[in-house]
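Translate structure to sequence.
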């Protein structure tokens, strides 16, 4: 018998038992499901009741304009709860469950009716509150009108006060200058009397006598007074003052009188002085009286201004008190606090008394008092509505408590029924499962023994075959069940596995051969790329040396011909001085040309020898960084000059480093060749900068930058990858920057970063130790030799 049939036999016995149990359980579970549905429905009713109560609370606390939404929500929840209660009555099987559901439905109907009555009262209170707010707004508007009128009156008083103040200042100025003129008249009279009693003719004849000085001061005071009178629009008084002063000056005796005046007597001088003094006294009397009157008017206007400000402030205080009273009233109505609202009615009476005491327009005052009275009436009505609302809320809370208790009882009843049925089903399932398990276990043991024994033999054969593939084939292939199929499949698998193992071994040998060949090719490419830059330098230096050597050769040939020509002249026995001087000049010019060009060629050769020796050699040495950098740039000058680019070097003098100059020269040469090849368009001359500086305590920073086209963002992360290049069509291999990265992170023991934006050039930053340890270079030589 096949294993599948045996398994069907083992499984069929428990299945038959389970089917019988399932039929009975299905009938019982139908009842349990009904009880659970009743419990779930009771829980839904409880939740909807809680939500309805929350909707009622939201309705109570919401603003008048937002209450409609909460009322609709309450109605929908109440309707859902009623439908659920009807469904629960239909599910109830016994009279107790049906009676509890009916009582809960009746309580819900009462609750909905109470809520509708509460909504009616709340709507009435909202209308009353809105009317009260309009009354408060009207009262505030009236106080604003009264304050604006008082403010306008105060502005008029201030304008009048400014006018009176300017007039008072002008009159005060006239009085002060009139007093000064009267004092000078008295001083002049005293000086005139002293001159008459002095008896010294020569003293009286002097122009700078006291009488002359007093007369000058008198004229100045008179001119000040006249100007002030003209400025205040009293031109007649100004002319009269000028005439009286001239008359008095003409009436003075002696040299102080004007030159055109006729001799005068003492009586005439006294009369002129008296007229001038009387005029000044009259002016002082009139202006002093006017000054006192203006003083009284200004004081009265200031008193009016203070009173007007106090009235305006009192009006503003009433507006503020009204606004606060309205806010407190709104808070009391929102909190449904009838006692607090009653206290506000008493406070409004004090506010009415304050309004009646204001010295404002009687019409506005009457309107304000009427508005306050109407506000108090509406607040009294609102207080009655608040008490009614509170009573309704208390009744609704009692009804809601009864509903919630009924819903909880229904939930407990249906839940208990579902639990009883569930317990019975569990006990029946446990007994049936135990019986089925015992019967199925016996059948399973018998079937298992018929399977495990041949399976164990098959396992032993496969282990032996795994330890020794040549041990032979797996047995039990003669069986016609699944184990025989497994044995035949295992034999086929072992045969195919041997064929594939031999094929994989051959493929691995071929892959190892190809990998070794690839490594040799890669090492040759890297070595050729390292020497490529040196070859370019060689070509440039050779071309550069060709020029000075050619000039030196031409100069030497010319000197030889000149020597032959001069030797012929010497052989003739007659050497003119001019010819001798010409010969000396030609020899001097030739020697200078030879020395300059051969020196130039020698410098190029020496720089190239040092750079080439450093690049070929991998030895470490101590050298001056500035001198070494100049020699490297000198060797690169032929290539840079041919491309039209300029190079600037910045390096502190005397900076000594102990590292591998060959590797560093290879790095900078590759960066320069990379910039010449990729950074600039054909025929465009660019700028390359090399900055070398000490970085930290024992580190060196080298910045190589150009102002070329830059590197595209999608290429920036791949420039150090081997064989990556954007100019493969021009013969580039893509190993230049890869070699740079390997040398920097290898023998130079540093790191290199690149920053570039399209159109803004490229900047390579190399940071390396000033004293290399040499470990990385040794590892690189080992790797190169193994490659």
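Result:
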């Amino acid at each position: 018998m096949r294993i599948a049939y045996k398994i069907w036999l083992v499984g069929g016995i428990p299945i038959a038992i389970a089917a019988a149990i399932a039929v009975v359980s299905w009938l019982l579970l139908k009842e349990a499901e009904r009880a659970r549905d009743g419990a779930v429905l009771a829980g839904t009713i409880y939740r909807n009741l809680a939500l309805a109560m929350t909707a009622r609370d939201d309705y109570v606390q919401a603003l008048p304009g937002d209450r409609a939404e909460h009322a609709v929500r309450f109605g929908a929840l109440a309707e859902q709860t009623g439908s659920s209660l009807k469904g629960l009555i239909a599910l109830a099987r016994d009279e107790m469950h049906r009676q509890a559901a009916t009582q809960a439905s009746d309580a819900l109907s009462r609750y909905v009716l109470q809520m509708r009555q509460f909504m009616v009262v709340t709507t009435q209170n909202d209308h009353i509150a809105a009317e009260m707010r309009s009354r408060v707004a009207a009262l505030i508007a009236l106080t604003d009108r009264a304050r604006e009128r008082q403010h306008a009156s105060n502005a008029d008083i201030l304008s009048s006060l400014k006018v009176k103040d300017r007039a008072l200042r002008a009159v005060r100025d006239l009085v002060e200058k009139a007093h000064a003129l009267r004092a000078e008249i008295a001083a002049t009279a005293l000086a005139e009397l002293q001159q008459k009693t002095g008896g010294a003719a020569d003293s009286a004849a002097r122009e700078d006598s006291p009488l002359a000085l007093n007369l000058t001061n008198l004229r100045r005071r008179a001119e000040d007074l006249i100007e002030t009178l003209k400025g205040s629009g009293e031109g007649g008084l100004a002319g009269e003052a000028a005439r009286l002063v001239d008359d008095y000056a003409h009436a003075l005796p002696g040299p102080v009188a004007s030159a055109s005046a006729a001799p005068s007597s003492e009586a005439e001088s006294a009369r002129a002085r008296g007229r001038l003094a009387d005029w000044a006294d009259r002016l002082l009397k009139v202006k002093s009286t006017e000054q006192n009157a203006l003083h009284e008017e200004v004081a009265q206007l200031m008193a009016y201004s203070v009173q007007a400000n106090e009235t305006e402030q009192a009006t503003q205080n009433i507006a503020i008190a009204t606004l606060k009273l309205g806010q407190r009233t709104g808070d009391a109505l929102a909190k449904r606090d009838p006692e607090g609202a009653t206290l506000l009615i008493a406070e409004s009476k004090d506010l009415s008394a304050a309004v009646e005491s204001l010295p404002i327009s009687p019409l506005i005052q009457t309107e304000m008092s009427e508005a306050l009275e109407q506000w108090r009436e509406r607040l009294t009505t609102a207080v009655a509505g608040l008490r009614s609302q509170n009573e309704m809320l208390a009744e609704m809370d009692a009804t809601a408590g009864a509903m919630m208790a009924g819903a909880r009882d229904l939930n407990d009843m249906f839940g208990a029924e579902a639990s009883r049925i569930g317990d019975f089903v569990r006990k029946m399932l446990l007994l049936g499962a135990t019986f089925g398990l015992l019967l199925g276990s016996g059948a399973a043991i018998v079937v298992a023994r018929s399977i495990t024994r041949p399976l164990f033999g098959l396992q032993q054969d496969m282990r032996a075959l795994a330890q020794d593939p040549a041990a032979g084939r797996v047995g039990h292939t003669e069986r016609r069940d699944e184990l025989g199929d497994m044995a035949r499949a295992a034999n086929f698998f072992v045969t195919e596995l041997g064929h594939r193992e031999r094929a994989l071994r051959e493929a691995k040998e071929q892959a190892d051969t190809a990998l070794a060949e690839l490594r040799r090719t890669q090492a040759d490419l890297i070595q050729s790329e390292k020497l490529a830059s040196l070859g370019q330098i060689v070509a440039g230096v050779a071309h550069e040396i060709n020029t000075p050597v050619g000039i030196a050769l031409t100069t030497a040939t010319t000197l030889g011909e000149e020597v032959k020509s001069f030797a012929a002249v010497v052989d003739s026995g007659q050497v003119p001085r001019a010819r001798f001087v010409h010969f000396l000049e030609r020899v001097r010019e030739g020697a200078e040309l030879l020395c300059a060009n051969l020196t130039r060629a020698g410098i190029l050769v020496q720089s190239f020898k040092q750079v080439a020796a450093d690049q070929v050699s991998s030895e470490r040495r101590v050298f001056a960084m500035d001198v070494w950098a100049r020699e490297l740039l000198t060797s690169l000058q032929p290539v840079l000059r041919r491309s039209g680019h300029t190079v600037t070097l910045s390096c502190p003098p005397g900076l000594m480093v102990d590292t591998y100059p060959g590797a560093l020269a290879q790095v900078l040469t590759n960066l320069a060749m990379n910039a010449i090849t990729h950074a600039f368009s054909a025929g465009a001359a660019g700028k390359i900068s090399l900055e070398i500086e000490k970085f930290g305590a024992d580190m060196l920073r080298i910045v190589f930058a150009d102002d070329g086209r830059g590197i595209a963002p999608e290429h920036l992360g791949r420039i150090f990858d081997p064989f990556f290049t954007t100019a493969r069509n021009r013969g580039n291999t893509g190993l230049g920057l890869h070699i740079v990265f390997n040398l920097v992170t290898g023998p130079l023991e540093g790191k290199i970063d690149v920053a570039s934006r399209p159109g803004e050039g490229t900047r390579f930053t190399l940071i390396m130790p000033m004293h290399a340890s040499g470990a990385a270079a040794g590892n690189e030589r080992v790797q190169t030799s193994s490659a």
